[in-house]
Write a structure and sequence with these properties.
By secondary structure, the chain is an all-alpha fold. 80% of the residues lie in helices and 0% in strands.
Length: 291
């Protein structure tokens, strides 16, 4: 039991590092979208990610099973839908509202896991999710913010990110996590290739201009983090995963202070603290107080 707990702690720390990486890529993504069209950007991101990971693990692909293919495609469809709604809605809502709405998957995951995976609702998980959502509101929401129809579209993004986590939780236990990562990348890439052809047309002349930022996004922000997520969700629940990944909003805000010269307000500090308290509450279940 003690060994299992240590594995869970290590998995949680590794996932927190993933949140740190994702939190520091907002500025890179913003710069890239000023050069390349959104669907083309996603096509390049997941196309190159799928190609690189496939070449690295050719032997695994050769022995792929039908059940792994089916599971990877299901996870990949959820990934595609999440990033589709992300790209569609991000242009029509403010960055602060978008961060809050998408981060709300922390509140969706426990209930979705209960409905689909029959996971018991944990009072610590529920309280932690509510605290994290309040923390996100403090961290990201501007005074007097008004919601509109595009914010509802951003909510679809949040829902499908939650569904993506639930699908990984359901299928990662007895399938190779690397294979699942490759298949979901291929699925997402193929769907964005089709969408790009229909909506934007193919333009590969921008690749030399974005080669360094794209390389960073492919290797550091896509291949490594999503592979890690598929692996660590063998050891921690989707609820814990969602809660820990809310740290990317906190890390993103802190990074913006230093990288983009933005101002860290008292409200943002309260938001960061609430997210941290929510994670401690959920992950420890206050056992350290009982001791």
């Amino acid at each position: 039991m003690e060994r299992n707990r240590k594995v869970e702690v290590i998995a949680s720390i590794v996932l927190a590092v993933v949140a740190l990486v994702w939190g520091t890529t907002y500025a890179v993504i913003k710069d890239t979208l000023s050069v390349v069209q959104p669907f083309s950007f996603m096509m390049f991101r997941f196309g190159f990610s799928a190609l690189i990971l496939s070449l690295m693990y050719l032997k695994k692909i050769k022995i792929i099973k039908g059940v792994d293919l089916k599971r990877g495609i299901i996870i990949g469809i959820f990934m595609f839908l999440a990033f589709y709604f992300l790209i569609v809605s991000i242009r029509f809502t403010t960055a602060s509202k978008f961060s809050f709405i998408v981060g709300a998957y922390v509140l969706i995951v426990p209930f979705l896991s209960w409905i689909i995976n029959k996971t018991k609702l944990d009072r610590y998980a529920i309280v932690g999710a509510i605290l994290a959502t309040i923390g996100l509101a403090f961290l990201t929401m501007e005074k007097g913010a008004v919601f509109n129809l595009w914010d509802l579209v951003a909510g679809c993004c949040s829902f499908f990110f939650a569904a993506h986590m639930i699908a990984i939780e359901k299928y990662s236990g007895d399938s190779d996590p690397i294979l699942l990562t490759i298949i979901q990348f291929i699925t997402t890439a193929v769907l964005f290739i089709i969408l790009t052809g229909v909506k934007e047309g193919y333009n590969f002349t921008v690749l030399p201009e974005i080669k360094w930022t794209l390389g960073y996004l492919v290797i550091i922000s896509t291949i490594i983090p999503f592979a890690i997520q598929n692996i660590v969700q063998r050891y921690i629940s989707s609820t814990s995963t969602a809660l820990i990944l809310t740290l990317q909003s906190a890390f993103g805000s802190i990074f913006a202070v230093y990288y983009l010269d933005e101002r860290m307000t008292k409200q943002m500090i309260i938001g960061c603290l609430l997210i941290f308290i929510a994670i401690v509450f959920q992950e420890t279940k206050l056992k350290f107080l009982k001791r």
